[in-house]
Amino acid sequence: MNPFAIFVFSVTILLHRATSELNDNERTALLTFIKNLADHDDSYDWTQAQSPCTSWKGVTCDPTGVTVTHLKLPAANLVGEIPANTIGKLYCLRVLSLPDNRLNGTIPFDFYGLSLEGLYLQNNHFSGHLPYMNTKDLKKLDVSNNAFSCRIPLSLSKFPESAFSGNENLCGSPLESCVLKNILCPARSTILTAKLEQNVVVVGTIGFGLLLLILIICCLRKKKQPPATGSNPNSLEAPDRTQGEGNGLVMMFDDGITTNSFGIEDLLQASAEVLGTGGFGTSYKLQVTVEKTMSTMRLKDVTVSKMEFESQMEVLGKMKNEHVVPLRGYCYGSQDDDEKWVVYDYVHGGSLFAHLHGGSIVLNGTQLDWDNRKRIALSAAKGVAYLHVCKVVHGNIKSSNILLRQETNKEAVVADYGLNTLFDSRSSSNYRVMGYWALEVLKNYRFSFKADVYSFGVLLLELLTRKAPNKASTGEVWNEFPMWVQMVAHEEPKVEIFDGDLRRDQNINKMFKMLQIAKDCVEIVPDKRPTMHKVVSMMEEMNQDVTSIV
Question: Is rRNA processing tagged as a keyword (predicted)?
C-alpha cells in the first residue's frame, strides 16, 4: 500500500474514532427533543444507530466529537413545546437556532444554565416570560415575532429593539416601559418552582445518602487540631450547635448515578483521611461505606462572593466527560468562615505526581513505561481539550491534578479544574505551582487557554524526564525549572534528557516526537502555542505512526 493510501486510511480511522464518542446523555437529550416534536421534517430524522456528529442534520460537534456545540434547525416544521432536560442537557452548546417553526409554550427552565453565544427563536409561538440566562458570552439574540410577555430581563436589555419586536405584551428596555404599556407581570413563581423541582429530581437520582454526605459536610466543623498529613484516619464529628447549623447551599450534579444508601451515623463515623494540602486547600478521602468513597476539598482563602462561587460551581458541575473528574456537589458556608467545600468522585489510582516522584514506577502491577505514559498524556490532553471546548480554563494543570484510574491500562482523568477563579492569584499559596506557569501568568496573573497549553507542555516534559517543576517542595529555587524548560525548547535534544526508565524502550523516536509537542506548547509567545485540540491531534498522529519504532 502506498504512503498516501496509508495516510488516507489513518485519517479515516481517526475521524471515525473522533466522531463516535458523543456523550450518551447528549445523544439521549437530542433524541428526546426531536421525538417530542412529532411533526418534524423527515429530512431531520435522527436514529440511534447514526453518528450524531456526522449524520444528524443540524447538529455540529466540537472537533473531538465528544459534545454538541451547535444545533441549527431552521424552518424544520418543528411543532410543540420544547421538553425540559433536552436542550438544557447540551452543556457546551454555543449556538441554538430554531427560527421559523411552530414551537410554543414557555422556554424550559434549564436554559438558564447554558452559556450560549447565539440564540435564534424568531417566528415561533413561544409564550410566557423570557428566561433568565447566562449572558456573559451571548452576542446574538433574536426572539422576535413570538408571544412572549412581561418584562425583559435586565441582562437582555443590551440587545436592540429588533431582537424583541413582534411580542405585543413584552415590555421593558429596550422596548417601552411596562408602566406605560400598562402590563402587569406576575412573579416568576412557576420558573422558580420548576427549578426547585429540578433540584429535587437530581438529588433523587443521586441517592438520599449522598445528599446527607454533602449537607453534613457543610455543617461540620473539623476538630481544632486537624489530622497531620499522612494516612492516619479520623472520624468526622458533629458541630457545636451554638456555632450555627445549616449554613451553606448544596447543589448536586449528575445524570443518574446510583449509590448505596447510608445514614447520618454512617457518615459521622466515616474515616476522613487527609490526602494532602495544596494551594487551594486540604483534600480528604471519605470512606462512607465499604462501597462508597468520596473526595472532598476544604477550600481556603476564597475571595469571591457567594453568588460568584455558586455561578462557577454551576458551570463546573456541567462538565461530563470520561477524562475529567466530575464535580458532585459544593458548599458555601458564609463569606467570613472557611466552610467552602467541593465534592468529587474519589479516583483510586492516585496522582501522576505520586507515581513519578513518590519513589515508585509501578502502576497497579504495571511499570510506568512508555505505553502507560503516552496513554496518560493523551487522556489528560483530551480532558483539557474538552474543558476548553466548554470555555473552561483549567488554571492549575500539574501532575498532582492528573489522577490515574486503578484498573490496568485505564486512562488518566483531570482534576481541580476551574477553581483558580475563586482565589486571588497573587496569593503566596499559589507560588508552589509557578513551575507550570507561563510567562504572561507570572507577569499579569492572567490565566487563559494558551496558559493552560503552556502548563500542559511542562507536564509533558515532567512525564518524559521525571523532573519535578514544583521546586518549592524540595527547597530549590522555583524558577530553575522554567529556565530549564526554555533551554530544552531551544537546544537540540539528546536521549539523555529522558527518564532513565524510558531510555531502554525501543520507541525513542516517539519520545522525541512527544518532546517536540511539549516544546511547541512552552513557546514564550502565547499565539505560537497550539490549541489543546491540535495537541490531541498531534499525539494521536504520533501513536498511529508505525514508522517511529527503531
Answer: no
